[in-house]
Amino acid sequence: MAFTSQRGLRRFAAIPAVASLVLAAACSSGEPTAAPGVTSTPCPGSANTDRGCIYLGVLSDLENGPFTPLGASMNDGQVAFWKQVNAAGGIGGYDIDISTYTRNTSYDPRTHRSAYEQIEPHVLALSLSFGTAQTVAMLNRMDADDMVSTAATQWSGWNYRSADRNLVLSAGYSYCTEAVTGLDWFAETHYAPRNIAVVAYRGNYGGDYASGAMKWALANDATIADHIDTGPNAEVGNQDGPVAEILAAAPDLVMLATGPAETAEIVGKLVKSGFTGRFLGSLPTWNPALLQSAAAPALTALYNYTTPVDSWAGDSVGAKHAREAITGEPANFGYSLGWAITYPLKALLTAAAANGELTRAGLRRSVGAMKPDGEGMVVIHPAGAAEPDLETEWSAVFEPDREAPMGARAVSVGYQGKTLSRLNLHEPCTRL
């Protein structure tokens, strides 16, 4: 039985009685149901022969990209999350499969698009779409396909319905508010920065983070001494240009929204050249492998990074569940992040199943009915709301530590600063 088109799904949705008969017939025959990605036959390798299967897609940087260690570890976190969901009984009579339609995109927009087109006919939703620009570029197609996705990035637009069209589920803060709250913590803990340099990847990730730094500076009588756009070393070669610009600007704090390799190079070269200020980075700047680099002493002494998620060793219920789901320590913090950002999709599937709407259009209609619970591990903004509840946001702050799990120790979890509430943010910090 062929997968029914989205036009067909809308026609069935308009005639509920007919839809029910079609779905019932499909289930009794053991064939795929009318909804792409939902079958009455068990998931591959599942021992639960009394359950059907919900197939979710994954598009991520799993090999040969600038964020491969993070992307691969986030995927591990999601696999463990859904495995635990299946062990607890699944959702609505179905197990969840995210392995069959997992595709490596290497953080490349063209590869991301082609991989989406390959798996689109076969999945109910995307459990992960890695890369802000990659996901934004697909929004028109996703809108036409009614394809809901979990955000694997923290672009501020994912928190606003006007930008994400009720298609992208997010958890935690945005890159923009990460910079704001991180600077509050830094000013309280180290010193009030007066002359800030921001080195950031071109595009949504770096632009959003730099926008947050600018907003904080304006609200706290500080100056952005320099905003330096850069890219992955695979694209730009090295970071000599940003290093030279920073030395010329002479800031007292350097903020980073890059990948780990660029972070190590920038920090190492600046400190070697006599820079005496400190460094504050977004989550994607860190990887424990940096402790094996020449920049390790400088990073350990002068660098902190922030995350929207409780630490691997945290006390939250979610952190405990994430630890119980695997044996041993994960490769990096991406495991906890992948686990935490999956809570909204679980809640959405649960709500849609309860409403008898396990279709793509049904998922979109169920967004307002979902009741996500981050189990204290991550803040989840009100589902379907026009904008986020910024008063609930918090950050976890880490410093490199060879003796700590994954090479970093949490120095503050649940930190909330004072600047965010003064900014009156009612739209994304960067527009596309």
From TrEMBL:
So which domain of life are we looking at?
Bacteria
Q: Where is the signal peptide?
A: 1-34
**Known PROSITE patterns for this protein?**
PROKAR_LIPOPROTEIN
- Write down a Pfam family by its short name: Peripla_BP_6
Keyword field: Signal
- Which InterPro entries does UniProt cross-reference here? Leu-bd, Peripla_BP_I
- Work out whether the entry's keyword set contains DNA-binding: no
Query: Boundaries of each Leucine-binding protein domain copy?
Result: 54-371
Matches recorded under PANTHER family: BLR6548 PROTEIN
What does the similarity note say? Belongs to the leucine-binding protein family.
Q: What is this protein called?
A: Amino acid/amide ABC transporter substrate-binding protein (HAAT family)
